[in-house]
Amino acid sequence: MLIGYARVSTFDQQSRLQIEALEEAGCGKIFTDEGVSGAAVFKPKLMEAIAYARPGEDTLVVWKLDRLSRSMHGLIETVQGLKEREIGLRSLKESIIDTTTAAGNLIFQIFGAFAEFERGTNHERTMASIAAAQRVGTRFGRPPSISDAQWVEAKRLLHGPDPSSIAGVATLLGVSRQAIYRRLASDKARAAACDV
Q1: I need a labelling partner for 138 at 20 to 30 A (CA). Which of 35, 50, 121, 126 fits?
Q2: Could you give the residue numbers annotated as active site?
Q3: What pTM, to 2 d.p., does this model score?
Q4: CA angle at 76 for the pair 71 and 78, rounded to the nearest 5°
Q5: How many domains does the chain have?
Q6: Are residues 108 and 158 part of one domain?
């Protein structure tokens, strides 16, 4: 079954041209988003159309690819989502985009390769940014729940001539007992590593 999807950015625009083209193409059901920008992440009727489509049987038909998304990134994500759900895609204006044909399926594979490439380059950029930040001293992760100054005082109270309990030290310093236990474990692990 062919399922049509039309979208217009403003309520002033007419979706009739798209709907007529989709009807002529043989779409049995048509979903229309009106007043929804191509840049919008959430397109409610597009989501309905995709949910309505039967995997392995139905094809989503659009007048032009820009009805799905204005950005290449958004288009790639949408096409990948359709591929994962085994829903075909056909564009009336870009006739090469028809995943029910061998050439159209090749285009689908190219979209997939672009998506994989984009994920890889994003990961590389992220890792390079983290490494650069670490080189200048930026620390990542949850900040310690007990400061170094508090930890010096906690050790003095715990190991002094009249040792206090962990609960007592935690109350006195305004930190949790778990924070003290974590620092004790961290110090123990660090000392064990130095002994090796």
Answers
A1: 121
A2: 9
A3: 0.55
A4: 95
A5: 2
A6: no
